[in-house]
Amino acid sequence: MKKYSFKNDYSEGCHPNILEALIKTNLRHQNGYGYDDYCEEAKLLIKQKMNNDDADIHFVSGGTQANLLVISSILRPHESVISAETGHIFTNETGAIEATGHKVHGLATSDGKLKPEHIQSVLDLHTNKPHQVKQKLVYISNSTEIGTIYKKKELQELSEFCKTNDLYLFMDGARLGQALTSEINDLTLEDIANLTDVFYLGGTKNGALLGEAIIITNKKLKEEFGFHIKQKGAMLAKGRLLGIQFSELMKNELYFDLAKHSNVQAMKIKSAFQKKGFQFLSETFTNQIFPILSNSQIEKLAENFDFYIWKKVNEERSAIRIITSWATPDQIVDDFIININQL
Amino acid sequence: MKKYSFKNDYSEGCHPNILEALIKTNLRHQNGYGYDDYCEEAKLLIKQKMNNDDADIHFVSGGTQANLLVISSILRPHESVISAETGHIFTNETGAIEATGHKVHGLATSDGKLKPEHIQSVLDLHTNKPHQVKQKLVYISNSTEIGTIYKKKELQELSEFCKTNDLYLFMDGARLGQALTSEINDLTLEDIANLTDVFYLGGTKNGALLGEAIIITNKKLKEEFGFHIKQKGAMLAKGRLLGIQFSELMKNELYFDLAKHSNVQAMKIKSAFQKKGFQFLSETFTNQIFPILSNSQIEKLAENFDFYIWKKVNEERSAIRIITSWATPDQIVDDFIININQL
Amino acid sequence: MKKYSFKNDYSEGCHPNILEALIKTNLRHQNGYGYDDYCEEAKLLIKQKMNNDDADIHFVSGGTQANLLVISSILRPHESVISAETGHIFTNETGAIEATGHKVHGLATSDGKLKPEHIQSVLDLHTNKPHQVKQKLVYISNSTEIGTIYKKKELQELSEFCKTNDLYLFMDGARLGQALTSEINDLTLEDIANLTDVFYLGGTKNGALLGEAIIITNKKLKEEFGFHIKQKGAMLAKGRLLGIQFSELMKNELYFDLAKHSNVQAMKIKSAFQKKGFQFLSETFTNQIFPILSNSQIEKLAENFDFYIWKKVNEERSAIRIITSWATPDQIVDDFIININQL
Amino acid sequence: MKKYSFKNDYSEGCHPNILEALIKTNLRHQNGYGYDDYCEEAKLLIKQKMNNDDADIHFVSGGTQANLLVISSILRPHESVISAETGHIFTNETGAIEATGHKVHGLATSDGKLKPEHIQSVLDLHTNKPHQVKQKLVYISNSTEIGTIYKKKELQELSEFCKTNDLYLFMDGARLGQALTSEINDLTLEDIANLTDVFYLGGTKNGALLGEAIIITNKKLKEEFGFHIKQKGAMLAKGRLLGIQFSELMKNELYFDLAKHSNVQAMKIKSAFQKKGFQFLSETFTNQIFPILSNSQIEKLAENFDFYIWKKVNEERSAIRIITSWATPDQIVDDFIININQL
Question: Running DSSP on this structure, what letter comes out for residue D59?
Answer without folding.
Answer: E
